[in-house]
Amino acid sequence: MDRRSFLIAGGLTSLAATGMTAEPAHAAQASKPLRINAGFLAVDLSDTGRVAGLRDLRTGTDYVAPGKSVPLVSVVLGDGRQETPTRVQISPRDPKVLVFSSDNATVEVKVVKYPTYTTLEVVSLTAASGVDVQTLLWGPLPTKVTQTVGECAGVLRDDAFALGLRPLNDKTVGSWPNEHRSFGFGPDIFDNPYSLQVDIHVEWSAAAKTTWGSILRAYTYDYSKVRVRQRTSGYEIPLGPLPGPEGRIIGSKVALFGSGPDLVLTVLSQIAQEQGLEYPTLGGQWQKTAQRTSQSHFWVHDLNTSTVIAASQYAKQAGIKNIYAISGNGPWISHGHYQFNSALGGSDENAAKLVATAAKEGIEVGVHTLSDFIDSGDPYVSPPPADSRLSTGLTVKLTRPLAASDTSLYVDSGKPLGPGVQGKRLRIGDEFITYTGLTQAGATEWQVTGLARGQWGSSAQLYPASTGVDRIIENSYGGAIGDLPIIDEIATRLAAAYNNTGIQATSYDGLESASETGWGAYGFARLVNGVYRQLDAKDGFISETSRMSSNTWDAQSRASWGEIGYTDYTQVIKNNIFYSANYLPPMMGQQGLSGSSTLQMIETTLAHAASLDAGVNFETSVRSLASGSNTAAVLQAIRIWESARKAGAFTTEQKMLLADPNKYWHLSEGTPDQEWSLQQLDSAGNPIGEAQPVKAPEPGFTTPTPPDARVGELYAFKTTSSTPQTIRYEVTSGALPAGLALNKDTGGVIGIPRKAGASRFTITARNDGAVPDASVSYTLKVKPDNEG
Fold it and tell me: What's this model's pTM, rounded to 2 decimal places?
């Protein structure tokens, strides 16, 4: 192990683990290398602030990618130049502050160490006279990890070690600016390493896979004045200004950590709780560890006030606890203002009555949304005047007058009307206009042809030369999308709708629209986190999403991509590899279900779901279930398969068999929720061979004896229940060694022991009531810090 002397930023904890001694922290020693300890990760910095090492403190293994030298912190100036520090030193005023200096800018970063992670926060940024600092870049930290890249979780791992970076507020965006890809290894990045069909996620991700390894990164943009941002297409969109601290780089904040792979969720749980991030729960259990997060739902196309009881009863027959309004992309008069339509009673008050009716049947209700899509009939658009806060590109000006009857117009620039965003729609005053063609008519003039005047309920008008013309950015259905103030209003409205009605599940379908405004992952955060923060009851609320970002990872429950039958099963498996890499629950996507569905089709989906331990969104309708002859059989099959899956009854070997796309299976029930029989079938439904027993595991623990700890050194150990029905872990007798704590959601035991000796304690896995609790007792020895 490298045994150079290091100055230690963020405290002296874990020095015994490194075998090094701390030097006095003062400016005269600024030439010595610096080290930031973050859990089991040591970030070594050169005297110019460049990342010189990313070491596992336990083994000394250096994970920094060879030949990839980057500054930990840099800035981009208003003219597009990257300004990298020429020196870094510990502040003489505060030993927790690192000062990164260059000719044009000085950035002060406060380093605060917690046992399992360390936070870095920009507390001061000063620029030379006349210098405009536009962007602050964190890294990207280059690693040689290739095994698993959790793009949205911001976690890289192999079998021995995990490194992570988490953005700690909305304005610290866990991804990279499109304008500055060349500063972040852009040509080396795999845009879609998991071959996702739904969309590439690299644009919104704190981690990325490269040709030589992987990176961790984040940035904060200065919006104290209007900035022109670029989408991935290169299209330019003016944004801002944002008021107060939200528009400034100061306050940009990330958490760094290193841990064993099995302790990642424990560290992420601690970061979220201690740093005030979103922490959705189900029955008090963190959703990232709750099996219920992957529960199956019924997506009911004709859910309304007259069908809610029948829909609830069908769901109960299938063992499903949530019915979800999907018809017309949700039960709304229009997307934008999100007022309930007549299906749910036309008001929050009547929707609450529908929810209460379902609750009497033991069923929860969810609703589908289209995020910040704005329908053409929504009040944000129609009738005139349209809201001025719709998302637009750069403004151009008429070079000639435009009469009400004209079908072509002339403007002073063509680029804002060219490719790069969806739709060909303009707004002049209160009039919406679509066009078909754009050609250059002169040195500084462009002709726009094929005009359709007076769109979206507006009327054609006369406009003089020099009138401003805005390019409207459309959503994928041909409507508008809202800029940030409308995104905030939609977040407030959706939260109010859920608070007023008791709705407990939702989607953010079309969430990419919040990024297409130009705001990127920051737009995601303002919508998704904005809804979560305004919920009155955060426990029990499940959200799905069409896209996942690092800035919404904490608040979002799950993704469930693909329509089974249209989406190839191979793609569903790829999706679930992505979910696993990002600590999201396994999900199958949507499966069509009717009363005429064949038992073989449904059981094939359920077998694949069991192989992945994945939930399914069953798309159905009361009408189809009521009229079909096979309804009772398929609902019973869902209930039986789901009960076995929830019990964790399938062995690893059985899951491998169930994953085979060329095999057919039937599961029958023995003792409810305890024993089943699994029979292979041929394509005609005839048995093949003998049936296999399927049995729920006995409640207990699968954890080995904990290793010894040492005073003053970070200690980590994970207890693991044998059943997925565990909802929390508790110390029920004795006590952990002083300095250690048990995470109730993950079973991780972690901390820094303060006193030598042996401690005996009992940990109990509290299960969901369907199976008994289980307990295990341990003796943990803490060695003195001077013992070999």
Answer: 0.95
